[in-house]
Amino acid sequence: MNVRAIFIDMDGTLLTASNNISKRNLEAIYMLQNQGVQVFLATGRHYEVTAPYHKEIGLRTPLICLNGASIHDAETGKAIQMKTVQLNEERFHQLTAEHAFNVMIHTANGLYCKEINEEVDYWTKVGQIPPRYIGDLRQANYQDVLKYSVRTGAPIPELSTLFKNEAEVINWNDGFELLAPNVSKWSAIKSLLRTLRISPNEVVAIGDGPNDIEMLRHVGTGVAMGNASEEVKKAADFVTGHHENDGLAEFIEGYLQVPYKSDVI
Q: Could you tell me how far CA 190 lies from the centroid of its own chain?
C-alpha cells in the first residue's frame, strides 16, 4: 500500500474501554510516523477531550473533532474550520424536553447539557473544563452549535428522522447526533487532503461507529474494527481485531509496516 496519511477514530478504535492507548497501539503509530505517514485523529469528541491524547502520541497534525464539525490547529488548539448547525430550536426542545433524555449541545464556546452523567464527568476530568450550563436547555443562552447529542438509552430513529431535513443525522444504539448538513468526518478529511495535496487513494481510515462509515467508504483503504457493527464492516475494505485486543496495531503491523531493508551487501 502506498499510504501517506491515516485517520484514526478514538473511542472503540484507538482507545480501550478504560480510555487508554495501549503500548502496542502507541508503538504501531510511532512506526508509521517513522515511515513518513501522517497520522490524524478523527473523532466525535470535542477538542478539549481529544487534545490530551493527541499530545500523548506527540502528533502535530490538525485534529478533526465533533464528527467533522470542527478542525483544530495542533499547536494553538484554535478552530481552523467550523460548521455550525441551524435547527428550529423551539421544535427541537419541544420534541426532546418531554422525554427523560439527556441532551448535550456542543457549541463553539463550550458544552451545554440538560444533566450531568458519567460521560460528562469524564469529559470534565480529561478536558479540565466543566459545562458552561447544566439544566433546562430552553432557558440556556447558547449560539454557534456544532453538534447536538441526544442520549435516549436506545435507538430511536422515529425521533431522529424528524430532523433529517435540517441536519445530518447519525443514529447510535443509545440515541442520535445532529450536525450541519453534509458534515462528517469525511467532509473534514477531504478539506485537509486538498490542503495537503494528498489523494484519497493514498489514505487509510479506521473506525468502528456509524460516524465512521463515510470516511471508510471514500478513502483508499477503509478499515473496520472487530467490535464494529455489521453496517460499518460492510463499508470497509478490511476488518481488523477488537479494540480491546489492539486491533488498530494489528492492522498497521500486518498491512502498513514497511519491511526492514539492510544496506549491507
A: 15
